[in-house]
Design brief:
The complex is a heterodimer of chains A (214) and B (210). By secondary structure, chain A is an alpha/beta fold. Chain A contains 5 helices and 10 strands, in the order αααββββαββββββα. In chain A, strands 1, 2, 3, 4, 5, 6, 9 and 10 form an 8-stranded mixed β-sheet that branches. In chain A, a hairpin with a 4-residue loop joins strand 3 and strand 4 (63-66). Residues 114-156 of chain A have low confidence and may be disordered. Chain B is mainly β and 210 residues long. Chain B has one domain: Porin, CATH 2.40.160. Helices cover 11% and strands 71% of the residues of chain B. Chain B contains 2 helices and 8 strands. Chain B has helices spanning 2-19, 44-49; strands at residues 31-43, 56-67, 70-92, 95-120, 127-146, 149-171, 175-191, 194-209. The relative contact order of chain B is 0.20. The chains are: A alpha/beta (214), B mainly beta (210). Chain A binds chain B through residues 1, 3, 7, 10-11, 14-15, 17-19, 21-22, 24-25, 29-37, 39, 123-131, 153-155, 157, 184-185, 202, 206-207, and chain B through 35, 37, 56-58, 78, 80, 82, 84, 87, 89, 92, 94-95, 97-103, 105, 107, 109, 143, 145-153, 206, 208.
């Protein structure tokens, strides 16, 4: 019977050796990029795009327009990827909602910390755009809305979302993005700037159907 | 299948209930308690989920001899499987149009709580090889992490196991080593890529007779 305490120590030791991914993974390991195209949409037909020059930041009780150095670098990285894929930037401003020459609009949104709890899907958490529920998000200053996203995110790591919309449908009450990228986990941890810019490149890289140069 | 389960449960309950009736077994020490360290490896769809073997497991094995060749008892265990997959592109399981770049961490914890019976081919020997069978409930904890986001599922399911092994008495009738294989089968657990959990444990432990 003297051996029983040893058994218990061994038992606790084995149990405590069970890995916890949240503790074992590096910041880079926790980063993920999900991309979600509208499969009905013909991406070969559009070329002129408008990219908003600020990032929409969803906070606990409010939405702000974020304009930090990092935000500008993220926007620039999206811009560079669009140019690399053969899209043409519009010279219109973000608030010019009447320009008929624009084909697509890109809106960037970010979430930080645990302020976005999201929804639970049938008892299962998913952290990615495929599982978003429609939720109307206003883009302050433009007077019109970009619907289609509630971010479901179960972890306190923050995310950046790139949403691409069909400009011709801008006056419709309901719009679903024609392409969306969720870059999760990149706004906390080490080396945030490199990770989020990598995430932007990865989002475009894994969405070769957007490429108009082929 | 349900009839089989019910029959096996009834037989085992009958065997265990006879334990309580006391000491007519003719065996001097008819209590047996083992603590085993266990390694595990998955099969079938469980192996598609986690192919890596598990070195994180243990179980408590209690038996009481009903006669020199037969015992009944309880098995309570824990086995934890884990595999980390390198970053790759995956399709979302419920929406193949979604492409996900991530590191994937996959975990499966299994806690069997079964009643069991054993048959011993020889007795009054240092080695007592045996065959066993257990049936009961299994707690299954499934986790798939896409980066830091978790897809989790916990369920209790009916399952069974088959056992083969031997005991080796270091001190006759008192203390020794248990070595065995236990094949666990939980056919009704279905989640994502898993359609029935199957895994094999290699147990190595110490036992006490009392």
């Amino acid at each position: 019977m003297k051996n029983i305490p040893c058994f218990l120590v061994l038992l606790i030791g084995i149990y405590s050796c069970a890995p916890d991914p949240a503790q074992e993974l590096t910041s880079y390991d926790t980063d993920m990029v999900a991309t979600w195209p509208d499969e009905e949409y013909d991406f070969s037909r559009d070329s002129v795009f408008i990219l908003y020059d600020k990032i929409l930041e969803l906070q606990e009780d409010t939405i702000i327009l974020s304009d930090s150095d990092l935000d500008r670098k993220i926007i620039q990285e999206v811009y560079n990827n669009m140019i690399a894929y053969g899209y043409v930037p519009s010279d219109s401003t973000a608030t010019d909602t009447t320009n008929p020459d624009i084909d697509i609009a890109l809106v960037l949104t970010k979430f930080q910390g645990q302020n976005i709890q999201g929804a639970q899907n049938g008892g299962t958490w998913y952290g990615y755009p495929a599982y978003w529920n429609p939720w109307y998000v206003g883009y302050p200053g433009t007077g019109w809305y970009f619907p289609g996203y509630t971010y479901i995110y179960s972890y306190q790591t923050g995310a950046v979302v790139i949403a691409m919309f069909d400009w011709s449908k801008r006056n419709q009450e309901t719009q679903i993005p024609i392409w969306e990228a969720g870059i999760g986990g990149v706004l906390e941890g080490n080396d945030i700037e490199n990770r989020v810019l990598w995430g932007v490149d990865q989002a475009f890289g894994q969405s070769s159907y957007l490429d108009q140069t082929n | 299948m349900k009839k089989l389960y019910i029959s096996l449960i009834l037989v085992t309950i009958f065997a265990i209930s006879s334990i309580a009736r006391d000491g007519d077994s003719g065996v001097e020490n008819n209590g047996f308690f083992a603590f085993n360290y266990s390694m595990g490896t998955t099969f079938g769809s469980s192996n598609e989920f986690i192919g890596e073997p598990s070195f994180r497991g243990f179980n408590f094995d209690y038996r009481r001899k009903l006669n020199p060749n037969v015992s009944a008892g309880i098995l309570l265990g824990y086995q934890h499987f884990y595999e980390k997959l390198d970053r790759d592109l995956y399709q979302a399981p419920n929406n193949p149009g979604v492409t996900i770049s991530s590191v994937q961490s996959r975990l499966l914890s299994v806690i069997p709580v079964t009643i069991q019976g054993h048959y011993y081919f020889v007795n009054d020997s240092r080695f007592e090889p045996y065959l066993g069978f257990g049936i009961g409930v299994y707690k299954l904890e499934y986790e798939k992490w896409w980066g830091a986001a978790e897809d989790a599922n916990d369920e209790w399911k009916l399952g069974m196991n088959g056992q083969i092994g031997t005991t080796f008495a270091i001190t006759p009738d008192y203390f020794g080593i248990n070595l065995g294989l236990v094949y666990h089968w939980v056919p009704s657990y279905e989640y994502n890529e898993i359609d029935g959990v199957t895994f094999l444990n290699l147990n190595l432990g110490l036992y006490l007779n009392f």
